[in-house]
Amino acid sequence: MLLIAATLTWLLSLPLRTVSLVDPLKSLMLFAAGVLYGLDADPRAPRLAFVLWLLALWAARQSISLTARGFGKGEDPRYQSLRWTSLYRVFWLQAVAAWIVSLPLLGAFASNAPVGLLDCLGILLWLAGFVFEAGAWRFTPYPNYYGTLCVWCGFWCIAASAGAWWSAVGPALLMLMANPRLTRRPAP
């Protein structure tokens, strides 16, 4: 499903001549993955409702923020040379990344283990990341990277509390993607 959403958005990006549509799409793909996992989960899973609400809040804020920030500015220069190869180099790559990053959601929903202290830690970490993303723009050049990493480490703590330690691969991928040496972004 994520590949379908990515492909349809890529098709929309062609006549609009902007690959930058992928930026707000990222959070929406993560939300879609969470909803799909939730639909397949036991409705009695104790983490299902509160994790979906946290995910919805984060995805809405992230998508709205990125759309508003890029509105009227044209295509991000990083994407201009990639327009015709952007389907697999940008959109499909983001869909695969979203699937991997979303694994803590799958882990959180797959268990009926009771909510515990690690869940509370996860919620606090999520809240710190959410607040950081929303309010740290004047203090750091990349609040979305740091805040998003905290949000998804929070989701991982919740998944780990449900027994899904294996889902650490999601936040680990985010850490790799946020590394300026690997992504060619200047260090803050």
The count of DSSP E runs of length 2 or more, i.e. the number of strands, is: 0
Strand content: under 5%
Mean pLDDT: 89
Percent helix, as a range, is over 70%
Poorly predicted spans: none
Number of domains: 1
Task: Write structural notes for this entry.
The chain has 188 residues and is mainly α. The protein has one domain (2-183). The protein contains 10 helices and no strands. Helix 3 packs parallel to helix 7 (117-135), helix 5 (86-101) crosses helix 9 and helix 6 (103-109) packs parallel to helix 8 (143-161). It starts with a helix and ends in a 5-residue tail after the last helix.
Short key terms for the protein model shown above:
10 helices; 0% strand; globular; single chain; mainly alpha; 188 residues
List the helices and strands and how they pair.
Layout: H1 2-16, H2 22-40, H3 48-70, H4 77-80, H5 86-101, H6 103-109, H7 117-135, H8 143-161, H9 169-178, H10 180-183
Helix pairs in contact: 1-2, 1-5, 2-3, 2-5, 3-7, 5-9, 6-8, 7-8, 8-9
